[in-house]
Design goal:
This protein is α/β, with parallel strands linked by helices. 38% of the residues lie in helices and 22% in strands.
Length: 178
């Protein structure tokens, strides 16, 4: 019985670690699933800049979508063909998971269409919070290939969230996503 439990524990540990292993990001479409337009713009531009600085070709969804369009349009065949011709092989979805440090990455059950249709009502900063957790989900060929959580703690305003976000993402590039 002990061996079975130990085996299961090891299997789950490797599975959790495999959530983002071997992503080998090269060409990424960055999609921020955020309700507020200024948050959406800030996260996509920051991520695109950080990815480009790390040597990864990155395009914000703002360059693909017309203003006011729903993100579900990005799952359409015509847009996917357009992004493929641009060299994009990975869709990176980012959203605010919540304001706690205890979140775990969600399982990859949804396809791209379902993931893009999920709404997000959380802004990147809310008064009286000290921590924001961002969830990243990676899709290739419409299927989820990994997910990760980035926690930004000790924040006091929107600017400190963005500063911590940039710092934490840079760590993720060097340790997990490349």
């Amino acid at each position: 019985m002990k061996h079975l439990i130990l085996s299961l524990l090891i299997a789950f540990t490797f599975n959790a670690g495999a959530q983002v292993e071997n992503l080998k990001l090269k060409n990424v479409l960055v999609i921020a699933l955020l309700e507020q337009e200024d948050d959406h713009f800030s996260i996509e531009i920051n991520l695109t800049e950080l990815l480009s600085n790390a040597g990864i070709k990155a395009i914000p969804s703002l360059n693909i979508l017309k203003r006011g369009n729903y993100t579900t349009v990005l799952a359409s065949d015509s847009i996917q063909e357009l992004t493929r011709t641009m060299g994009v092989d990975t869709y990176m979805l980012v959203s605010v998971r919540g304001y706690d440090k205890k979140f775990k990455p969600s399982s990859c059950k949804d396809d791209l269409q379902q993931a893009l249709s999920v709404g997000n009502l959380f802004p990147i900063y809310r008064d009286e919070i000290v921590s924001v957790s961002f969830e990243f989900t990676f899709y290739r060929n419409g299927q989820c290939v990994g997910s990760d959580i980035v926690k930004c703690g000790n924040v006091s305003d929107r600017e400190s969230v963005l500063k911590k976000f940039r710092k934490q993402i840079t760590k993720k590039f060097t340790h997990d996503w490349l």
